[in-house]
Amino acid sequence: MLDSLYMTIITISTVGYEEVIDLSANPGARIFVVAFIVLSLGTITFAISSITAFIVEGELKNILWRRKMDKKISKLKDHYIVCGADETARSIIDELILTKKKFVLIDPSQEKIERLLSSGDFLYLTGDSTEDEMLLSAGIKRAKGIILSLPKDEENLFVTLSARSLNPGIRIVSKAIDFKSDKKMRKAGADSVISPTHIGGMRMVSEMVRPAVVTFLDMMLRDREKVLRFEEVCVEEDSGLIGKRLGECKIKEKSEALLVAVRDKITGNYHFNPPEDTEIKANDILIFIASPEMIKELEKKI
Q: What is the Cα gyration radius of the chain?
């Protein structure tokens, strides 16, 4: 039985038949060889399975996914960059996904990013947004705007300075935990500074004194089937509407979007519920209540 077992093991393990030392007279040595071969085969099998897991499910898969993600990001233009993956960023991402905006998220925590991915699929980079290399990887020089929702005002201030130096024309919106940071961030280059505490207080007052208006806005913002938002469309300098009256443009006939105001680019004044004889000028901003699809159609026609 021992000879049979020995010959079977060295055969199926492809170790071979020839022995430098004759072990036929030493059963203990043959038992040791059998045990050694079985242990070695188990080790080799484990090593092969680990390498296979690495290739199929491990780091190599992540590397290939990272390259694919970087390639997609490199093709983006006029997109948005979101820095931070806190609860404020969740609301930001939900809104960007609902309104079908192109964006890239940057955060050092893969775990936080994974939680936000439950809202929908989006492009992201795992890293520190305070580093210029990370902002460049997110395409900041081609981006339309950057939203800062980092946990500390100092970090938001630092990224504001970096973003403004890398892309002087980018629009920067930053969160301010301390309301006193507003002036500093604006001096650093932020176009707008939002205090969640201040906004929360305003919302609570609105719920008290104008509940019907708040309910209407909530229905508009939370409806997943028909997404309606206050959107803006800029009248480009080569637009065929320049010099025409609103009545001549027939915007109501071209789209279901509701025109609620026109912002004069020169004076900065808003003309609410503009009359039909309002003249359209280059770089005016038309403000609508519309869906993302309506806005895309209007951008082609305006």
A: 32
Q: What is the mean pLDDT of residues 19-33?
A: 71
Instruction: List domains and CATH numbers for the chain.
Output: 2-56 (no CATH), 76-194 (3.40.50.720), 228-301 (3.30.70.1450)
Model pTM score: 0.66
pLDDT, tens digit, 9 for 90 and up, residues 62-93: 777 888 899 999 999 999 999 999 989 999 99
Q: According to the model, what pLDDT value does residue 49 have?
A: 85
- Residue 286 in this model has a pLDDT that exceeds 80: yes
Calpha distance 139→198 (Å, rounded): 31
Average pLDDT value for residue range 165-192:
92
